[in-house]
Amino acid sequence: MKKVLVDSQQILVQWVSQATGINTLGVKVRLRGNDLHILCEATECPLRWRTLSDLLHALQQTDLDVLTNNEQPSIYQVLVYGRKKGENRPQWCHRVHLNQLDKHLEQVEQALKDAEASQPGGSLIISNESLARRGDPNAIAHYLSETLSSLGVGVQVKIKPHQPKDKTQAPTNRLWVFCQSVYSPDSSLLAETIAQKLRLLKLTGYQDAVITAQVSGETSNDWVLRVDLTPPEVMLKEWARWGDIQAIARLLTEVLLEFKVTVQASLKESTLHLFCSPAFDPLEDAPAPDKTQCLDIIVSHLEAIAPQGILGATIYGQKTAQKQPAWIDWISLPASQHPALATSALELAISGDEPATHFLLERLLNTDLEWRLKTGGIRVLLLHKGDLLHIMCDAPVCPNRKQVANKVTQFVRQLKLPGITGVRVYGRRAGNKEPVWHHGADFVQRQRLVPEATPEFAATSEYVGELIVKDGQEPIFRPDLTSEEVQNFVTEVARDWITTFTTTIQNFLLGTQIFTEVGQSAAADPDLQGGLKVALVWGTLGLLLTLQTDWISGQIVTRTLPQTPQVNSVETANAKPKPPRKPKHQEKVELLNNSSGQKLSGSKNSAFNASGFTVHEDDPEATDLTAAPLKEKATASAILLAARSQMPSFNARQLDEQLALYRQQLNIKGSPPDILIIGSSRALRGVDPAALSKGLAKQGYPNIQIFNFGVNGATAQVVDFIIRQVLEVSELPKVILWADGSRAFNSGRDDITFNAIAASPGYQKILEKAQNTDANEEAANNPAKSPDKQKNTKKPDEITSYQAINNGLNQILGAFSSTYQNRNQLKSLLHQQLDSLPLISDRNSKDNQPTDSVTETSDDETSLQSVDFDGFLPLSVRFNPARYYQKHPRVTGNYDNDYKSFHIEGNQDAAFQEVLKFTQAQQIPLVFINMPLTAEYLDPIRKKYEQEFQQYMIRLATNPNFIYRDFSQLWPRKNDYFSDPSHLNRFGAYEVSKKLAIDPVIPWPTK
User: Fold this and answer.
1) Alpha-carbon distance 902 to 749, whole Å?
2) Which residues of 926-958 are buried (b: 16+ CB within 10 A; e: fewer)?
3) Positive or negative CA dihedral for 434, 438, 444, 446?
4) Which of 741, 730, 722 is nearest to 671 (CA)?
5) How far apart are CA 487 and CA 838, in angstroms?
6) For residue 735, what is the enclosing H or E element?
7) What does 37-71 look like in DSSP terms, one character per residue?
8) Overall pTM surpassing 0.70 (yes/no)
9) Which ranges of 610-652 would DSSP assign to H, the alpha helix?
10) Nearest CA-CA partner of 737 in 441, 430, 1004
11) φ, ψ for residue 198 (rounded to 5)?
12) Residue 120 has what pLDDT?
């Protein structure tokens, strides 16, 4: 029992004493759940109706919740007791519902007027159950508190809207029941009780209810329970549709009970036998039910139900005590005329019909029909994945493993379902996300390369937490160890390791005879007298070792390079593309999948149910998506072109290679492309030049040349630098498509990409070139100042003269070295090998985790430079939230560096304004595409910034030379079009390109 807090108790005692006139020593109060108990005692037992009248008048003018502590649950009813002092039991008790005070008061006043009456008159008090059936949340709370208050549990009920997973369905209401107590009640104690009481109300308009339990003073829930509020009539009709005889008999009995007729049923082969007899006949002399009346009702209901596998029905009318029927009739059912209904549920299940299997499993586990109607019973969810059938069983109380697992396994084994070689059974409490237990059985010997992992019950972003082990779930191997003992052990091991390592290095250096111990005299070692000879020997060995290492490294790098032709092979970019070759990691994954028998099913039913319990894994073979054919990769050609280019590096390898590819295309075709796609990695992966060109050809724009100049991390400043300073006017296209999003315009964050470019020698050369151009123009206009300019221009040449010497030495050594030409590949190879080491890879992952943005991922590090000759990066990987967030942290907009201190006004806005002015001056239409994003990426913070960015773009769209297209909300739920939360793959790029091609507003160029 829960006592009221001291301050609240004194206030309530004084309030009752003032209302009734009873001394405070004779008043006691206690609060249990939502019930307030008031005991009134005196020398003589207080008069019942007078005491109640005083209390009711006081209750009308007082809010009890104000008198109690804020942490106390609301009071729904008051129980008043009266007894004589010295006695243990009260002489009278009266329950007062606070939502019906007027009717209570009228009843009490009538009782006072008619004290002699055996029963008080007045208004009839409506039960809380009757009020709760109307769906009012307060009435439902009062109704539940009648049972839960005795357990010390307070109740509060709210109604919240619920949007189904299927957006086409109308929103529904969901009932939320909040239970609060000073202790944590076991869910099994309350689950079936609450489920039965809620289902007894037969509420309409609610699909289910959610019950949460919370300890007073705490903020988190102890447990959550889901109660299925599907009406019993709907459950009965669903089972009757499958030919369940108990459900059919129960339905017909409820209909005929109005005529005092009960129905019993039995099934023999494909004929249903129905026996109609009097419902209430204790004397066994009632006549047999009326034949015409029974037949009309039964026939109409059976035709509406159309039970599966039942061809006809024989109906009997009989008296209670007689075995012989008074009348018999036979009718045919819809299954006799429709072959699809003639097959029984068992035969359908054996042939692989999933709904039939679902019904049979639920019928197997819910043997007591009455219990299922009262509590909702055990619900079964199926998932057919590969050659395994996964079966989830949940109920208000978690089903017992011994009673469920073996029964389900044996039943599935007897069905011999086609394509099923094993079953996995799970049990959980309704409302839980993770199973409490699981059980598996294989019907054939299963060969596995790796141990079988725990199945994933949900692969969507909504339940991604199910796939991640909580920190609290990690096992504690040595709970007896203290932190001091662990620290001492680590210190001793580190000290021994350092000592051993130091001694080993010292002995090795002394063994080379190049080094000697400190304090050792020269005469002590006669070998040191020939130091010059030793130096020559070691120098020669070092030179030979260097040459050998260079030769071996050259052979390794040459073998690892992709087999592509020289730079002149760029001309084959327009030739017929070769069949795409699968990456090695994909081949390994497919090999494991084929060997373990875990191929995903191609069934369209990709979930346990419509509530989003689980979805299929991201299987490239599960859904057929359209994309442009893969073209020949330009990796080797881009590297060679960038290495041979006269332009110094921009400290951005991808920018160097994209620029080299772009200018190579200019040399081959003799003119710039008609359309230039530019932007960050979202443009690099998100717009397919081949698909766009093909789509434009269908729209009457043939032979349009397109190049994708996307650069990872490119912001508005980077795009401005490329368009206005890197590219010559003669190299500019006819139309520019800028594909990106809001984060490229964030002036509040550090522009790492542009800062790296600004510190590069390529950037310095661009500035020098611009200064020389300005100086030449100024000299042409004002020749008198030209000598001064020439003096100023000589200084940089003198300062950087050492670079020419350095370059000359590099070229001489490079002529004799086999790895010099492939030094970049060697650097990348060594970097990959170092990253693969456990210690380094773990350190890198930890160092990068808090600062990396979710927009830059490394899933395809080997493919980041695998662009084709059109500059496009086609990625085939599909975004799977469950797998993705196991490898990468889920970074929200609050912690995303791309949105740090987000504001558009600043250097990025200024750069964009320069691009607008420049393109307008050159009469080049500028089209900006706000690229698609996933719902996983668009959290409330990012949505806010996206709206701000869209308003900014809409204001600028008034410029006649600028067109804005918003695709950000195009496919928020189609993860198959994305390679990560914010980047499209080649399938999404194909769809975006198709959509752009048919855009009537964009001024496409014509030949």
Assistant:
1) 7
2) bbbbbbbbbbbbbeeebeebbeebeebbeeeee
3) positive
4) 730
5) 23
6) strand 735-740
7) EEEEEESSPPPHHHHHHHHHHHHHT--HHHHS-TT
8) no
9) 635-644
10) 1004
11) -70, -45
12) 46
User: How many angstroms separate the CA atoms of 989 and 684, rounded?
Assistant: 10
Nearest to 654 by CA among 662, 664, 665: 662
356 within 8 A of 348, measured Cβ to Cβ = yes
d(Cα 391, Cα 908) in Å, to the nearest integer? 54
Cβ proximity of 431 and 848 under 8 Å: no
CA distances from 315 to 243, 244, 331, 891 (A): 16, 17, 8, 67
Please count the CA atoms within 13 angstroms of the CA of 471 that sit on its side-chain side: 0
Q: Bridge-partner residues for 645, per DSSP?
A: none
Tell me the pLDDT tens digit for each residue of 613-666. 334 444 444 457 888 888 888 777 777 787 777 788 888 888 888 888 898 888
Between helices 354-365 and 401-415, what is the axis angle to 10°?
140
Radius of gyration in angstroms for the set of CA atoms belonging to the chain, rounded to a whole number: 41
- The whole-number pLDDT of residue 316 equals 94
Choose among 736, 737, 739: nearest CA to 924. Answer: 736
- Angle 244-247-252 (CA atoms, 0-180°, nearest 5)? 125
Total length of the chain: 1007
- Give pLDDT, residue 334: 92
For residue 610, with 0-12 CB atoms within 10 Å meaning exposed, 13-18 middle and 19 or more buried, which class applies?
exposed
Look up residue 576 and give its two tokens: 């017929």
For residue 653, give both structure tokens: 């390898």
Average pLDDT for runs of 10 along the chain of length 1007: 57 84 84 86 86 86 78 83 87 86 82 60 64 84 84 86 73 86 81 86 84 85 86 90 93 90 92 91 85 92 92 92 88 91 91 92 92 90 89 91 91 90 91 87 71 44 32 41 63 77 80 64 48 75 82 74 42 40 43 38 39 40 72 79 80 87 88 92 91 90 90 92 90 92 89 89 85 65 48 40 63 68 70 61 45 40 64 89 85 85 89 92 92 90 89 87 90 90 91 90 84
Q: According to the model, what pLDDT value does residue 824 have? A: 66
The answer to whether 121 and 103 are in contact (CB under 8 A) is no
Distances, alpha carbon 237 to alpha carbons 94, 251, 500, in Å? 43, 8, 79
Which tokens is 760 given? 């590069």
Largest distance between two CA atoms of the chain: 134
CA distance 217 to 412: 48
Model pLDDT, residue 597: 40
Other Cβ atoms within 10 Å of 135 Cβ, number: 16
Q: Which of 684, 655, 681, 686 is nearest to 744 (CA)?
A: 681
Alpha-carbon span 262 to 947, nearest angstrom? 65
Distance CA 234, CA 647 (A): 76
